[in-house]
Amino acid sequence: MVKTAPSIITKVSTMAREIKDIKEFVELARRADIKSATVKVNKKLNANGKKFRQTKFKVRGSRYQYTLIVNDAAKAKKLQQSLPPTLEIKNL
Q1: Considering the domain boundaries, does residue 3 fall inside one?
Q2: Is residue 67 situated within a structural domain?
Q3: Mean pLDDT across the stretch 6-35?
Q4: What is the DSSP string of the chain?
Q5: What is the number of domains present in the chain?
Q6: Structural domain for 26, as ranges
Q7: pLDDT digits (tens, 9 = 90+) for 39-86
Q8: Would residue 50 count as lying in a domain?
Q9: Residues β-bridged to residue 16
Q10: Domain at 24, CATH number
Q11: Are 60 and 34 spatial neighbours (Cβ–Cβ below 8 Å)?
């Protein structure tokens, strides 16, 4: 009976990673492997029933998609302006 080594299967995860810190997200957006960004604005209701805008920023890396969710419209506008000009930005 001949024993063989078990085959090792590696799987590359393509799951999304949520980033909570704006500075960390901007640093990620400046990496060389980040080529495109998507900005999506959702209209939501808070606990009091008041409408607000939730903005999702997504950048695609070679391994993961990184997402940042911003609930403040002013911060979202500043963040969109601070994204590198080399990125291809899609607004949804």
Answers
A1: no
A2: yes
A3: 79
A4: ----PPPP-------EEE---HHHHHHHHTSTT--EEEEEEEEEE-TTS-EEEEEEEEEE-SS-EEEEEE--HHHHHHHHHHS-TTSEEEE-
A5: 1
A6: 15-91
A7: 999 998 888 889 989 999 999 999 999 999 999 999 999 999 999 888
A8: yes
A9: 65
A10: 3.30.720.90
A11: yes
